[in-house]
Amino acid sequence: MATITVLLGCSVLLNLLLFVSMYSHGGWEPSWTRTAAAEAESVASISCSGHGRAFLDGSILDGEPVCECNPCYGGPHCSVFLPECVADADSGDPMFLEPFWVKHAARSTIVVPGWHRMSYEFNDGSLVSKELDAQIRRLHAAVGNAVTDGRFIVFGGGATQLLHAAVHALSATNHPLSPSRVVASTPYYPVYREQTEFFNSQDYKFEGDTSLYNNGRFSQGNFVELVTSPNNPDGKLKKAVLQGPSVKTIHDLAYYWPHYTPVPAPADEDLMIFTLSKLTGHGGSRFGWAIIKDEAVYQRMLTYMTLSTYGVPRETQLRVLKLLKVAIEIEGKEMFNFGYQTMSNRWRKLSKTMSKSKRFSIQELEPQRCSFSQKLRKPTPAFAWLKCEREEDKDCNAVLNSNNITGRDGSLFGAESRYVRLSLVKSEDDFDLLLRRMGMLVSRENDDSGDRINGILPQNETIGKYLPSARINDSHEWDSVTCRWPLEELATHLLAR
Amino acid sequence: MATITVLLGCSVLLNLLLFVSMYSHGGWEPSWTRTAAAEAESVASISCSGHGRAFLDGSILDGEPVCECNPCYGGPHCSVFLPECVADADSGDPMFLEPFWVKHAARSTIVVPGWHRMSYEFNDGSLVSKELDAQIRRLHAAVGNAVTDGRFIVFGGGATQLLHAAVHALSATNHPLSPSRVVASTPYYPVYREQTEFFNSQDYKFEGDTSLYNNGRFSQGNFVELVTSPNNPDGKLKKAVLQGPSVKTIHDLAYYWPHYTPVPAPADEDLMIFTLSKLTGHGGSRFGWAIIKDEAVYQRMLTYMTLSTYGVPRETQLRVLKLLKVAIEIEGKEMFNFGYQTMSNRWRKLSKTMSKSKRFSIQELEPQRCSFSQKLRKPTPAFAWLKCEREEDKDCNAVLNSNNITGRDGSLFGAESRYVRLSLVKSEDDFDLLLRRMGMLVSRENDDSGDRINGILPQNETIGKYLPSARINDSHEWDSVTCRWPLEELATHLLAR
User: Fold this and answer.
1) B313 touching A (Cβ < 8 Å)
2) Which of A90, A166, A180, B248 has the most CB within a 10 Å radius?
């Protein structure tokens, strides 16, 4: 009798536990989403040793997607470091933000049914999600980095597509013998030239450095000036150079976020382009937006998007909406803090390493008041603009290559090959390796310095037209730096980003 | 004692039932995907009376997305038919396939974590998913509609982007004073002209109807001929017209699927373009692919994709992979059967209605042997190419408008306004309304016919240069039809698809 009573008690307790377990999530059980959700969670649980990741659409081996390893790691679970591999600081791929999204997987996941938004258009006949348009305006209001009131917004396939849509929209079409002259200030993002030359339109032509046209001598005709602020490659906040009724400007504000720069005030320009890539890190989603004052320009850009790709995919717009909600709705604007802290730490470490060097210098930028963070802060640009100071180091990237590092040659930006752009936005693995290799290069430099004093190697000299760059020092007193860049012919070749 | 024993028995039985219930799905419970999955299932359960749908990124009212109603339906749950609304048969939006994807929600859903493929590139440095490339090849092998062995594949933002990428890649760049002449056979898809003129490249120029150049008189210079097969708007299978070493062809095979046409053999052309829109119905995903023989052309198109949008979004590529798996892996190729049956039923109904008409006629196409279905079958084109037969009905779309129907004016395709393209690929609601309205128009015609005999209205006359179109009759003996189309100036204005 006592035994049966005990058994009954245990069975009832077990029932209670099973009920609680079943309904601890409010009783909801997935139905048609179950298969897809299980597959996603299964793939996410594949261990790649923290040096890679498996994806749902990865190559399949033994029935599951393989680990796709970060550069310099290998093996089936990315646990093997490959010591001979190159520290690749060429591409501006913003993988530094990936850990934030891994942490917030639950909030940032989307489920896309097979029937989601199949139609060519939204119900209002447009190609743009009104919810996403509104979210972008909320984003800029929260960050305070751009005016959107009374402006039009166009979505595009990254800033990449919007840049040439804007150039097209702003170019004179009434003067077939006088195409608009497209200019940018050296050093500038190479794609401006490459794109414009590749599409070879009758309406516009890439003419090179803005400074050639800043003295009135060549200023006949229409101009389209590309202004990148913060600039790529050197991180400086920039303003338009040319003025006048025949000048139209495109402001490429890809990096105008607290991750990379103080935000002194909301940008308020005629045509401003932003990209998701540099904000959330989702370069692979190919999403950007343009904020436009003039309605006629807006209509032309809409037409461009219609005839070019008929808009931006619906699954991308859904995903971006979710990502931007996470970006501004998590308490304390955590994504921006994460981005800024990561970049700030990287600059601190890099500056400390470079402070020991006479052979190399990196750019210095003044602190400014930031309205987002409500304090005076230093820029933390996406790239280091490295300069080889020694006379004989004319090809700086070659110097780096000899120590298994590669960056992007300065000549591609219209500057000298004495400069190299180093990407600081890649994954933690990439940055750690870059820092180690630069550290080794700097410490070898100090071994060489004895040879210099003994006359074996030439002294570091001031090169005629350059002011010596102020060096990074430990007291963090940042002097302003003025650099002049000679106009170089760009190598027109295909660049990976 | 007996009571306690009975209670114990019941409790143990309940234990077993609860265990079975908990683990009936293999014991798996969603963790980080739960929130997103619950949200998706909640939105899917919103009832829109079968005449609309709610989406995850729709406008929010009372805390949930609103129903987005099919045209001609309104009210908060799309239950109100709006009798005055226009039956819109203008756009080729392939919503007829939506019911298939609703039925197969579980298999066609994707879950996209916030960290999915953030990088600009895949691990091999490319912008294309190797798994998706392989799946496309499997698709064409399963359907037998295109040769892919030994060919290169480029992804693009719909056929829209690939068409101008192909025109760019095939155009001569060595002769700035002699741009390539881009031609297409009337009636042709208006976007060919609109795109080419809008981008206004120095490398190519739209020159109009192919037939102008088919006699050797104007055949100097390089030509790029666009061949659409089945043709848009009339559904005919077409071949290239021009021949010779200075001619390059682009085959737009958007409709070369069993839904719309017999597939006599795998297409085996130098450059073939397909779009997801017309295959699965996902026009909003902006995904197409080109199959290319020549490696140099392939590289130029890759460069175009790089400088234009830097590839196609990763979430789109993931989704397309899933959709194409469903397309060919469900038993009996159900998606293709569903597509064909739907189009076949619609043509049967439309033909029956039009068989009663003398005022209007629709195109007739010969049956052909189909290798996919292994039988002789009639074409079931995406569009009816409607002709107004009466002398006075020069503006056929105006005739339709008077009965609350609208199609796409034939002049936009380079034909006369006596022709109208009617879309047969939209939703069931759209087709049902079109059929009803056409039926009313035809029955009113029979009321008018008395007036004609009495001399009130002019007789139907044979127009000089046109052969009377063979009419659809109930015996389904399909005679071949030869039509000649005069070259008309296209109205260059923005078209919704």
Assistant:
1) yes
2) A166
In percent, how much of chain A has pLDDT > 70?
86
Q: Check whether A470 has a pLDDT greater than 50.
A: no
Closest CA to A346 of A384, A307, A400, A385: A384
CA distance A378 to A8: 69
Residue B308 in tokens = 């234009």
CA pair distance B213, B10, nearest whole angstrom:
88
A422 in contact with chain B, both atoms CB, cutoff 8 A: no
Nearest of A176, A239, A247, A246 to residue A256 by alpha carbon: A239
Nearest CA in chain B to A55: B116
pLDDT in tens, B15-71: 888 777 666 655 678 999 999 999 999 999 999 999 999 999 999 999 999 999 999
Q: Which residue of B has its CA nearest to A283?
A: B120
| Segment A46-89, tens digit of pLDDT | 999 999 999 999 999 999 999 999 999 999 999 999 999 999 99
Q: Does A6 touch chain B (CB under 8 A)?
A: no
CA distances to B140, B158, B351, B362, B441 from B436, rounded to whole Å, are 37, 33, 13, 16, 9
CA torsion through residues B328, B334, B335, B337, sign: positive
Parallel/antiparallel/unpaired status of strands B52-53 and A180-184:
unpaired
pLDDT score for B18: 78
- In this predicted complex, what is the ipTM? 0.88
The number of helix segments (H) and strand segments (E) in chain B equals 13, 22
Interface of A with B in 276-305 (CB under 8 A): 277, 281-287, 303-304
B68 touches chain A (CB under 8 A): yes
Q: How far apart are CA B12 and CA A288, in angstroms?
A: 60
Chain B residues inside the 8 Å CB shell of A1: 1, 4
- Answer whether A426's CB lies under 8 Å from A355's CB: no
Q: What is the mean pLDDT of residues B117-140?
A: 97
Q: Which residue has the tokens 């005990």?
A: A6
**Average confidence (pLDDT) over A112-126:** 97
Q: Which of A4-13, A237-246, A428-437, B443-452 has the lowest mean pLDDT?
A: B443-452
| A368 dihedral zone (left: phi>0; alpha: psi -120 to 50; beta) | beta
Cβ atoms B94, B335 nearer than 8 A: no
Q: How far off is chain B from A495, nearest CA to CA, in Å?
A: 9
Closest approach of chain A CAs to the CA of B118, in angstroms? 4
CA-wise closest residue to B378 among B239, B265, B467, B258: B258
Query: Can you give the pLDDT at residue B486?
Result: 26
Q: Identify whether B313 is preceded by a cis peptide bond (ω within 30 of 0).
A: no
The contacts of residue B70 (CB under 8 Å, 6+ apart) are B51, B52, B78, B427, B429, B430
Q: Which DSSP string do the residues of A117-148 spell out, in sequence order?
A: T-SSS-TTS-SS-HHHHHHHHHHHHHHT-B--
Q: What is the pTM of this model?
A: 0.88
Q: Which band of pLDDT confidence, cut at 50, 70 and 90, is reported for residue A489?
A: very low
pLDDT tens per residue across span A336-392: 999 999 999 999 999 999 999 999 999 998 899 999 999 999 999 999 999 999 999
Q: Which of A5, A104, A494 sits opposite B114 (nearest CB)?
A: A104
The label of the residue with tokens 């999915």 reads B116
Alpha-carbon distances, residue B257 vs A135, A174, A388, B385 (angstroms): 39, 43, 60, 19
Q: pLDDT tens-digit profile of B68-82? A: 999 999 999 999 999
Q: Which residue of A has its CA nearest to B159?
A: A309
How far apart CA B87 and CA B72 sit, in angstroms, is: 8
Which residue do the tokens 């022709």 mark?
B419
Q: Which residue of B has its CA nearest to A161?
A: B309
Q: What DSSP state is assigned to residue A210?
A: G
